Amino acid sequence: MRMKAWHAATIGAALMMGGAGVAWAHHSFAAEFDTNKPVKLEGSVTKFEWVNPHSWIHISVPKDPRTGKPATWRVEGGAPSALLRRGWNRNSLPAGTKIIVQAFAARDGDARASAADISFPDGRQLSLGNPTTEAAAAAAKRAGQ
User: Fold this and answer.
1) From its phi and psi, is residue 11 left (phi > 0), alpha (psi between -120 and 50) or beta?
2) Counting C-beta atoms within 10 Å of the first and last residue's C-beta, which end of the chain has fewer, N or C?
3) How much is the pTM?
C-alpha cells in the first residue's frame, strides 16, 4: 500500500512540474507589449508560423517606424484555433503577401509587436484572433489615439 501511495505521489509531482513549464512559458500582453507604443507596419510577409500558443507573422518592412531603415518584424497573432474560427488556415498568408499591421510594439525595443487586425492594400481586413490586443486597440480608439 505504501508503494502505491509513493508511486501516485511521484506521478502527481511529475505532472505538476510539466504543467508549470507551460504556465511560465505564456506571458501577459502588458508584460510584453506597450499600449503607449502603437506602430504601423507596412511590408511583405516573409513567413507565417502556425504555432501554439500564438501564431507569428514575419514582415519585411522597407522603413522601420523606429529607425527608418529596412527591418524584419515578428507580429504575434492569436492561437491557430482562434484563427480557424475567423476563417484562417496555415496557408492564409503566403510569403510575399503585402500587408499593413496596426500593432503595439514590444516593451524591450525588439522588432516584435502584437496586433489585432491586419489589412491588405485592397482594403480587406482580417482579425488576428488576439482578444487582449483587440481590447487594447479598441481602448486606444476610444481614447482618440
Assistant:
1) alpha
2) N
3) 0.72
